[in-house]
């Protein structure tokens, strides 16, 4: 049967869609292309439209023989969500409800959901495991928490089983530099480091150098996008084998400081990467990294790529696609 990948023209969605195809799965992508790129689909079947369009969702499922969904389609800028919470609840929550409702009426009862470790907020215990209390600190994070709860109730009421994957800091690009992250729409550290390495910004700003960490800068858990793609495929297989609704962390279990990211990027790119120090940003936690035991136990998943691989693939992508997908057409799958 076919997998519907919503948001499959976006960053993590495109890597997952590609891996599904490489493993012999039939897929169809549903994407509005508001934040995604047609070129990122690498020729996979693409339906351009809104996940809240019930008629379109049902028609796509029926026409392509879909029996499961991997759901990425969402807005993801936490800062923007603080300024316009209605945009995030309307898109991330209400439209997901419309999607799942439409899908279940035509027999789809398995959903892998792209969630986030941001549902935990600033952690009180490290490493963060799935029992950590929820404390979302933005409407974006709250929208992920609400959808997780919503999916649990869809299981109770309708038997729609789901896996919510709470990943930490997604980074990197495909190893052949065919697909990667659009640095025009992200404020994440790794693409900003790449912008500095390639001279697209004059310097990188390091926010906070007085944290109680090994070099004074904040610590985060960076996980390669290809490892995340593998986890989504494994979550789908878990549901297909009868697995119950659950939530699982995805990270490496290892934290890297901002300075360690910069220094490793300098080694990989052989670029200077100028940086300037600044004060802490409000709301930035000191240290965040995940506990992977449940991912190992339930999915048999283990991250295989380290920080160096993340930065090497990110540099290869950005240096060959300085204007994103507008630079060159990616090779055929």
Summarize the entry for a quick read.
It contains ten helices and 13 strands.
Task: Walk me through this protein's architecture.
The protein is an alpha/beta fold and 333 residues long. It has a domain at 2-171 and 223-250: NAD(P)-binding Rossmann-like Domain (Rossmann fold). 38% of the residues lie in helices and 17% in strands. The protein contains 10 helices and 13 strands. The protein has helices at 11-22, 54-64, 78-83, 85-104, 139-158, 189-197, 225-240, 258-269, 293-299, 307-320; strands at 2-6, 26-31, 46-48, 66-71, 110-116, 161-167, 169-171, 204-207, 219-220, 222-224, 246-250, 256-257, 275-278. The strands form 4 sheets. A 7-stranded parallel β-sheet has the order 3-2-1-4-5-6-11, with helices on both faces. The protein has a two-stranded parallel sheet with strand order 7-10. Helix 1 crosses helix 7 (225-240) and helix 6 crosses helix 8. The longest helix has 20 residues, at 85-104.
């Amino acid at each position: 049967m076919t997998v519907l990948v919503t948001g499959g023209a976006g960053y993590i969605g495109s890597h997952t869609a590609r891996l599904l195809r490489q493993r012999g799965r039939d897929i169809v992508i549903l994407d509005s292309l508001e934040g995604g790129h047609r070129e990122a689909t690498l020729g996979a079947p693409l339906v351009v439209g809104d996940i809240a369009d019930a008629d379109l969702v049902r028609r796509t499922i029926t026409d392509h023989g879909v029996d499961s969904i991997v759901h990425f389609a969402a807005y993801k800028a936490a800062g923007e969500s603080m300024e316009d919470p209605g945009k995030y609840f309307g898109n991330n929550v209400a439209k997901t409800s419309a999607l799942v409702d439409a899908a279940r009426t035509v027999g789809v009862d398995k959903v892998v959901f792209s969630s986030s470790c941001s549902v935990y907020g600033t952690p009180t215990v490290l490493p963060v495991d799935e029992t950590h209390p929820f404390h979302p600190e933005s409407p974006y994070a709250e929208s992920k928490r609400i959808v997780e709860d919503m999916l649990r109730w869809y299981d109770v009421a309708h038997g729609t089983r789901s896996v919510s994957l709470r990943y930490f800091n997604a980074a990197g690009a495909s190893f052949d530099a065919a697909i990667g992250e659009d640095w025009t729409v992200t404020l994440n550290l790794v693409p900003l480091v790449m912008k500095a390495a390639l001279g697209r910004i004059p310097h990188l700003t390091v926010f906070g150098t007085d944290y109680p960490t090994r070099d004074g800068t904040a610590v985060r858990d960076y996980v390669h996008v290809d490892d995340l793609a593998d986890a989504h495929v494994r979550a789908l297989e878990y549901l297909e084998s009868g697995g119950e609704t659950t939530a699982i962390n995805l990270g490496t279990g290892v934290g890297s400081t901002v300075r360690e990211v910069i220094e490793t990027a300098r080694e990989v790119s052989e670029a200077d990467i100028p940086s300037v120090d600044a004060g802490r940003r409000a709301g930035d936690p000191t240290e965040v990294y995940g506990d992977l035991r449940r991912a190992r136990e339930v999915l048999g998943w283990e991250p295989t790529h380290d920080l160096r691989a993340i930065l090497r693939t990110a540099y290869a992508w950005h240096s060959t696609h300085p204007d994103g997908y507008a630079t060159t057409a990616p090779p055929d799958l």
